[in-house]
């Protein structure tokens, strides 16, 4: 004969105590709700990482726009200047250390300008090629 | 010749400051910061440390909990290398990507080694009689950051 049915039932009901309606009292309804709650929490643990990363990105975007830079420019230039702070840190710095974030934005802006100058190059046409612009003298 | 859209680049023209003057300015700033560090004119220091595959923003008297095992007994002093950033109120030292070991020193002590709360991993497929329940208990370590020190060895 089963003698510890009470404790087996309590094991499930203890996770359902804060639910709404009869799910927090009746075992048959509680089992289904508790099972769904566990499954949702396992899936949410994987989604939490994606959600937090999106949150950090929006925060960094807002902070960099205050300093006149867009998010892709900011992040790409920071990575090109070999600063390997991840998005969580940059978001935390933007909240709690505004001066440090301003210096990071200035660094990214400077690297961006250097990139523009490097992309323009010498400003000369390559050799042996007719230029499209015909100069009339 | 008429101006076409591809004659000039789409970004506004940029002019970098004079390199010689810039070098002078940089040397000045570095000397000033060195003096400030040497005389000790900083308040609370914060550092960004890469530890246990995560980045942490830490100050002194800080508690840190990591979700893994450290091979150190309780009460061991640990020196954290891999410092990415150090800052105070008036200046920050940004590492590219890391700062030198002769510049910063971060000390921490292991306080406790516990296990996390039992997390429940459950998979369920409806109408197929498939459910699995697993209880995961991670070992955790708690560290307290004792001090962050910087030395005036900038160049």
UniProtKB/TrEMBL annotation, chain A:
One of its GO terms (cellular component) is ribosome. InterPro entries: Ribosomal_bL20, Ribosomal_protein_bL20_C. Keywords: Ribonucleoprotein, Ribosomal protein. GO terms for molecular function: rRNA binding; structural constituent of ribosome. Pfam families: Ribosomal_L20 (PF00453). Gene3D superfamilies: 6.10.160.10, Ribosomal protein L20 (1.10.1900.20). The keyword Disulfide bond does not apply. One of its GO terms (biological process) is translation. PANTHER family: 39S RIBOSOMAL PROTEIN L20. Belongs to the bacterial ribosomal protein bL20 family. This is Large ribosomal subunit protein bL20m. It comes from Sula dactylatra (Masked booby).
From TrEMBL, chain B:
InterPro entries: bL21-like, bL21-like_sf. One of its GO terms (molecular function) is structural constituent of ribosome. One of its GO terms (cellular component) is mitochondrial large ribosomal subunit. It holds the Pfam family Ribosomal_L21p. Coiled coil: none annotated. SUPFAM superfamilies: L21p-like (SSF141091). Belongs to the bacterial ribosomal protein bL21 family. This is Large ribosomal subunit protein bL21m.
């Amino acid at each position: 004969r089963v003698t510890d049915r009470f404790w087996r039932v309590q094991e499930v009901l203890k996770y359902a105590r804060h639910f709404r309606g009869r799910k927090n009292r009746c075992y048959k309804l509680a089992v289904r709700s508790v099972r769904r709650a566990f499954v949702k929490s396992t899936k949410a643990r994987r989604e939490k990482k994606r959600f937090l990363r999106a949150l950090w990105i929006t925060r960094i975007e807002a902070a960099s726009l205050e300093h006149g830079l867009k998010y892709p420019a900011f992040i790409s230039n920071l990575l090109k200047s070999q600063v390997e702070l991840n998005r969580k840190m940059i978001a935390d710095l933007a909240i709690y250390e505004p001066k440090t974030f301003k210096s990071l934005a200035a660094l990214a802006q400077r690297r961006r300008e250097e990139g523009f100058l490097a992309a323009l190059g010498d400003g000369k046409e390559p050799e042996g090629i007719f230029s499209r612009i015909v100069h009339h003298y | 010749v008429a101006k076409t859209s591809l004659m000039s680049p789409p970004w506004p023209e940029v002019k970098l400051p004079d390199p010689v003057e810039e070098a002078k300015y940089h040397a000045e700033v570095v000397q000033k910061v060195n003096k400030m560090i040497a005389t000790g004119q900083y308040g609370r220091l914060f550092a960004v440390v890469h530890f246990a595959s995560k980045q942490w923003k830490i100050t002194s008297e800080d508690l840190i909990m990591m979700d893994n095992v450290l091979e150190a007994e309780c009460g061991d002093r640990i020196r954290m290398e891999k410092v990415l950033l150090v800052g105070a109120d008036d200046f920050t030292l940004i590492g590219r990507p890391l700062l030198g070991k002769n510049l910063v020193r971060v000390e921490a002590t292991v306080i406790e080694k516990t296990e996390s709360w039992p997390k429940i991993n459950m998979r369920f497929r409806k109408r197929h009689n498939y459910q699995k329940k697993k209880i995961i208990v991670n070992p955790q370590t708690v560290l307290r950051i004792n001090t962050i020190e910087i030395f005036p060895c900038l160049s």
